[in-house]
Design goal:
The complex is a heterodimer of chains A (329) and B (284).
Chain A: H1 2-22, H2 33-74, H3 93-100, H4 102-133, H5 140-148, H6 155-165, H7 172-179, H8 194-219, H9 223-231, H10 236-264, H11 268-273, H12 285-295, H13 299-328
Helix pairs in contact in A: 2-13, 3-13, 4-8, 4-10, 4-12, 8-10, 10-13, 12-13
Chain B: H1 2-33, H2 38-44, H3 65-73, H4 76-107, H5 113-123, H6 132-141, H7 148-152, H8 159-170, H9 175-182, H10 187-198, H11 200-215, H12 219-224, H13 233-236, H14 238-242, H15 248-283
Helix pairs in contact in B: 3-15, 4-8, 4-11, 9-10, 11-15
Classes of the chains: A mainly alpha (329), B mainly alpha (284).
Chain lengths: 329, 284
């Protein structure tokens, strides 16, 4: 670095020398016109660029970056919504309380449990569905549409619908189970089953969406690879292991991270189906933040939890980035 | 060998049919039950009748009596209109603001362009769930609680949409714009008269993605539109579930109503949506 600097300096000195040496010989000329025109053109381009970009930047700044900063600031205060003028700085008190808060701990582990199960299951179901219908099939479009159909319903609609299907006495699923001789299950009202019932529904709702992305990925794998493998007499298992899976790696990682983050944001399903119960077994992190902020109006503490939540999401994202980079490198 | 292949095919189709049943039955049950009365819903649940529409002889008061009752019981129409204003508002302003930003980042050289692109992509990581409280405080201070402004404005700028537009405009041939520039067209004119009309696919894709995201939105409308007259459909649906008497037929009718716009989108515009999906998938 240093060598470069000194040589640049030398160059600069030389130029100075030449300029000072030559200057007296030159007649005074008007400043180069072309350059000036270029400069004003660059200026105009910059102005136009900012004219096009400014609305989005201002909106993102005000409604995304500012609240982000505000959440960070609130997390060190005792901001209470009903007394917005009486806010004092309390240092790390909120964060200390997070460690002691049994509800937070429960919500955190509930969310981890949900994510740790949903992510691999949903990923495999989506991949399995995509592989099943990535063939010449009769009614292929019909099957694809059927698997995708839960995606057209919103999470709210799906949650309400499944609450009725999970109904312990009259629900559709228990009625179906009864015809096969299985006694009615409590599903959402038992602490052992409630979260698992929500997991089943969530996988059912989301898998079709990722199936579509996998299908697109499968179509991007060049066909000649399979043809070459056929000539070499590879079994279909070998083809899957050595061609299909490596070809889907990046897409699978992308889907993995999307599902992980979405899973960590779990809110709508427990809010509608169980209100976090029974015995807090379905209370999620975001749900706990929501309740603290809006029901108990403790913005300071809720913000501290939101900061922790953001950090967790960031860590998941960074791990994924690293994984993808390693892949490429 | 041939026999084995036949058996393979057979198991494949059987598993496909079973999977189809698993994925489709809640939707079918919802649609079909919305046409039945309470007695028929519970009676039919004992058998596969649960997935068949009511026999014409069984229909009293028309197929759509649950829909009529649902609309009479709650101002569903108002909720739908609110949802439409909310989503379409975000789409219209979002298309303008985000396409302009994407164009700026794809075409113009200006100081800090790379920095802003980095900032915009970085905001993608911020989970909206972590900022809704301070955002609510901000919107409250602005006096926008229970207004369409408060619902729409915070979500106009969308980093993901900006990114999609930028990628599209990067591939857009420059020659047309240069020709227009020689003809004396201004930059703004070039963008709105030449670029926009030739970029319909990306506009359609972004519009559909925005529609699907915001039609299904739950948290923000719940927080900002606390007043009954401002509720969106996703929030209003809960009434049928929580306020007795709970009528299953009406619940199913209301759920169907909330799903119809999405069904229409997927039936007619699926091509654009899948394009958007694959784009996001392959870009990463």
């Amino acid at each position: 670095m240093k060598g470069n600097d000194s040589s640049a300096e030398k160059l600069e000195n030389e130029r100075h020398f030449h300029q000072t040496a030559k200057k007296p010989q030159l007649k005074p000329t008007p400043p180069p016109r072309k350059k000036r025109k270029l400069k004003s053109q660059a200026f105009r381009e910059a102005m136009t660029g900012y004219f096009f970009l400014a609305p989005a930047l201002v909106l993102l700044g005000v409604f995304l970056l500012y609240p982000m900063g505000a959440a960070f600031y609130y997390s060190f205060t005792d901001f209470y919504i009903l007394t917005p003028d009486d806010v004092s700085f309390i240092g790390l008190e909120n964060f200390k309380y997070i460690v002691e808060d049994a509800q937070f701990r429960q919500a955190f582990w509930n969310t981890v449990y949900f994510s740790v199960i949903v992510v691999p299951v949903q990923l495999s179901v989506a991949l399995g569905l995509a592989l099943l219908i990535n063939k010449k099939l009769r009614f292929r479009v019909f099957f694809r549409t059927a698997f995708f159909s839960p995606v057209v319903m919103s999470l709210v609609v799906v949650s309400i619908l499944w609450t009725f299907m999970y109904n312990p006495n009259e629900g559709l699923i228990n009625q179906l189970l009864q015809t096969v001789g299985i006694p009615p299950q409590p599903f959402l009202t038992s602490p052992d089953q409630a979260m698992n019932s929500i997991i089943v529904m969530s996988v059912w709702q989301g898998a079709g969406f990722q199936m579509m992305i996998f299908l697109a990925g499968l179509q991007n794998i060049p066909n000649h690879l399979y043809e070459a493998a056929d000539i070499d007499g590879a079994s279909s298992w070998q083809k899957f292991w050595h061609i299909t899976l490596p070809g889907l790696r990046n897409i699978a990682l992308f889907i993995f991270i999307t599902i992980s983050i979405a899973a960590f944001k779990l809110l709508v399903q427990p809010m509608i189906m169980t209100q976090g119960g029974p015995l807090g077994t379905t209370k999620s992190l975001v749900y706990h933040i929501y309740e603290t902020g809006f029901n108990y109006r403790d913005v300071g503490y809720a913000s501290a939890m939101a900061v922790v939540f953001t950090v967790i999401v960031l860590v998941i994202t960074i791990i994924q980035r690293v994984l993808i980079k390693e892949e490429r490198g | 060998m041939r026999k084995k292949r036949m058996i393979n095919k057979f198991t494949l189709y059987i598993s496909l049919v079973i999977l189809t049943f698993i994925f489709l039955f809640p939707l079918v049950w919802m649609l079909v039950s919305s046409l039945k009365n309470e007695f028929q819903i519970f009676r039919d649940m004992q058998s596969l009748q649960a997935f068949l529409p009511p026999a014409p002889a069984d229909v009293e008061g028309g197929y759509f009596h649950n829909y009529v009752a649902a609309f009479q019981r709650v101002d569903l129409l108002r909720y739908i209109v609110n949802s439409l204003i909310y989503t379409i508002g975000i789409i219209i302003f979002g298309l303008i603001v985000n396409s302009m930003a994407g164009y700026a980042l794809a075409r113009f050289r200006f100081p800090l362009a790379g920095f802003w692109l980095g900032v915009i992509i970085a905001t993608l990581i911020i989970p909206p769930e972590s900022i809704f409280l301070p955002l609510y405080v901000l919107v409250y201070d602005l006096g926008w609680v229970n207004t369409y402004t408060g619902l729409i404005v915070p979500f106009i700028a969308n980093a993901f949409a900006i990114f999609l537009f930028r990628q599209f405009f990067l591939d857009f041939p420059k020659e047309l714009e240069e020709a227009a520039k020689i003809d004396g067209c201004s930059q703004i004119g070039i963008f709105f008269r030449i670029i926009v009309p030739l970029s319909k696919p990306v506009f359609a894709t972004v519009a559909i993605v925005l529609f699907i995201n915001h039609w299904n939105d739950f948290l923000w409308p719940l927080v900002v539109a606390s007043d009954e007259s401002m509720r969106t459909i996703q929030i209003g649906l809960q009434y049928f579930m929580n306020e007795p008497p709970i009528k299953w037929g009406q619940v199913m009718a209301a759920l169907t109503v909330a799903t119809i716009p999405m069904l229409l989108i997927f039936a007619f515009l699926q091509r654009y949506y899948v394009q958007g999906l694959t784009h996001t998938g392959s870009k990463n």
